[in-house]
Design brief:
One of its GO terms (molecular function) is mRNA binding. The chain is mainly α. It has a domain of 156 residues: Leucine-rich Repeat Variant (Alpha Horseshoe), CATH 1.25.10. The protein has 39 helices and two strands. A hairpin with an 8-residue loop joins strand 1 and strand 2.
């Protein structure tokens, strides 16, 4: 054992090798990288700046103000006079961003003047352009700094707009600078001369320029087209300044370049981010060829519901439906998204939405002036270039509606869907149009069942108004299918008309509509039988206009008056007026004036002329 341990101790341990032998390939790579970086300009300052930046980013203004002040003083000492060069280095631009973030007012003023000298070059740099964005963000409310930034950008707008990276800086500047500077910068899109001559605020828009210099219209048009095409190549379609320029181009120039339409076609979805972009896209759709429209449809594929409910995007999609002859293309790529099985949520979201519901109105009642606003009619329904479409609007809409018909009918066969539609302002209008177009006995039955299962619908203004219109469809169209709804409703609520439908003043309007329906004579008999209960409800209700109209209608003929006279000849009725807090007594009498006073608003006697006006008035609520 001793010999073994002794031999072990006598073994020579390996001597440490030289530093070059112990370096791994990774260490060698780092050493070479550091050696290369050492030859860069301002290497020592950047190395120290990185160390300080690493400390700064962990501090907060509230708790570490003194430490931040110390670090900023050192950074300013290191980089003053070198900020532009340092910002262009990919590994040092974050240091300059931190200096902008934590700098004091005096330090900001020094950095602003220094960085503006290389602002355009930094805007084109993948890393340094973040310094420009940081600078613009901090000087958002400083008008003095904005004036300096404007002078720096002046003459460089087109170059920045057509650069893949710098366009982002220009977009931020156009969004956050003062409006007067934005208008002056926009003029450079119309020609090089506007970047050279003195600022003329009287020509701050393309409309003003064309009005004063109409002889230069062709030159301006060519220059704008050149800028647009270059911006499309650099994928700048999604910027607001591009979309505003495109809208001005389509608005003020009658002949739109085919190259512009073709270039933008594949980027249709990006144009929907602003209203100007959506309006410009509608113009391009109207002037485009069948191939251009096909590419636009492909661009919007998968975004049908989100586009239709978008505040501006719905205009472009409706325009495509209005002018595209290839209805099969529209069905497969756009409408198929809302006709998939078990897709009631998307249909419901469209029907209940202010914008989304316009899809159904465009196909079901395109001529309704009350549905579409004037600007929507100008943009969507008017065709800029009829030669690009061969089918008539009627045929095109009929083909699309035929595709949607089974889905819409199935959608209206579900009671839970019907209740949601009835209580919605826009959904109720959609339901009315679907019922008037495709309503049948089955749909009427489902509607009545849904109404019967949800008696609270008669407390809802939208639901009551819609039910009245569903009843009155018969008088407008003389359709037996439509009139069956009224008869089915009366039959379902037999012996419950007053207790269910007449439970509210709004429901009384529904009963009035049923009485006027010639298929529902039994309704009037039941209401005459329960007239005493209606009188009580009228007196107790806070808003009784519906009851007043219903009671006036019930007592129009002499026979009804004879039936109700004994009720009114009973003892005194004391009624509390609804508008004035006073009580009045109506003595029993058989003359017409006393009888009619029972049904006046609040129990207050009406003059004879007022009673006539009340009878002739069509009540709305």
């Amino acid at each position: 054992e001793n010999m073994t341990s002794k031999n072990t101790d006598n073994k020579k341990r390996p001597e440490p090798s030289s530093s070059s032998d112990t370096q791994t390939p990774a260490n060698k790579k780092r050493a070479l990288k550091r050696e290369r970086q050492a030859h860069r300009k301002h290497f020592d300052e950047v190395l120290r700046g990185k160390y300080i930046w690493n400390k700064l980013r962990t501090l907060t203004r509230k708790n570490d103000a003194d430490e931040i002040k110390t670090h900023m003083a050192e950074l300013m000492q290191l980089f003053t006079g070198k900020l532009g060069e340092v910002a262009l280095q990919h590994d040092a631009s974050r240091i300059v961003q931190a200096m902008i973030k934590y700098g004091s007012e005096d330090q900001d003023a020094i950095m602003l003047d220094e960085l503006l000298s290389s602002f355009v070059a930094m805007s084109k740099s993948t890393y340094a352009h973040f310094v420009c964005l940081k600078l613009l963000a901090k000087r958002e409310n400083d008008l003095t700094a904005q004036a300096k930034i404007y002078k720096t950008l002046k003459g460089n707008v087109v170059r920045l707009a057509t650069h893949a990276v710098a366009s982002r800086v220009l977009e931020y500047a156009m969004t956050n600078l003062d409006k007067k500077y934005v208008k002056l910068l926009q003029r450079e899109f119309y020609g090089n001369e506007f970047s050279i001559f003195d600022d003329d605020v009287t020509m701050s828009s393309l409309e003003d320029i064309l009005a004063k210099k109409s002889e230069k219209k062709d030159n301006i048009k060519r220059h704008v087209e050149k800028v647009l095409l270059k911006a499309v190549e650099k994928e700048g379609v999604h910027y607001a300044f591009f979309q505003s320029l495109l809208w001005e181009y389509t608005r003020f120039f009658d002949e739109i370049s085919k190259d512009v339409i073709s270039g933008v076609a594949d980027h249709a979805i990006h144009l929907l981010s602003t209203r100007n972009g959506a309006l410009a896209l509608c113009k391009l759709i109207g002037h485009g060829s069948a191939k251009d429209r096909k590419r636009m449809v492909k661009s919007l594929k998968g975004y049908t519901v989100s586009t239709l409910t978008h505040s501006h995007g719905y205009l472009a999609l409706l325009k495509l439906l209005q002018v595209t002859d290839d209805t099969v293309l529209l069905q497969k790529n756009l409408l198929a998204e809302i006709t998939n099985a078990d897709n009631d949520e998307d249909l419901m979201s469209l029907a209940l939405d202010n914008k989304g519901s316009k899809l159904f109105f465009l196909l079901l009642c395109p001529d309704s002036q009350s549905i579409f606003y004037e600007d929507e009619i100008d943009v969507v329904l008017k065709h800029e270039n009829p030669d690009t479409s061969k089918k008539s609007d009627t045929i095109r809409r009929a083909e699309l509606l035929q595709f949607l018909q089974p889905t819409l009918i199935e959608f209206c066969q579900k009671e839970e869907n019907l209740v949601k539609l009835l209580t919605s302002h826009f959904g109720s209008k959609v339901l009315l149009e679907i019922f008037s177009k495709f309503g049948d006995d089955s749909m009427s039955t489902k509607l009545v069942s849904a109404i019967f299962a949800s008696s609270e619908l008669f407390e809802d203004s939208n639901a009551c108004r819609t039910i009245q219109k569903l009843i009155n469809i018969k008088h407008e169209s003389n359709d037996n299918t439509s009139s069956s709804f009224a008869s089915k409703l009366a039959e379902k609520f037999n012996d419950r008309l007053v207790s269910n439908i007449g439970a509210s003043s709004r429901g009384a309007f529904v009963l009035t509509a049923l009485i006027k329906c010639h298929d529902c004579d039994a309704v009037k008999s039941e209401l005459l039988r329960d007239q005493e209960l209606l009188l009580k409800k009228s007196k107790d209700a806070k808003y009784a206009k519906g009851y007043d109209v219903l009671l006036d209608l019930l007592n129009e003929d002499d026979e009804a008056k004879d039936k109700v006279a004994p009720l009114k000849e009973k003892a005194t009725v004391v009624a509390t007026p609804r508008r004035k807090t006073r009580s009045m007594s109506i003595e029993s009498s058989t003359d017409d004036e006393s009888v009619s006073s029972l049904y006046s608003a609040g129990g207050t006697p009406l003059r004879r002329s007022a009673r006539k006006a009340t009878k002739n008035k069509s009540y709305k609520y």
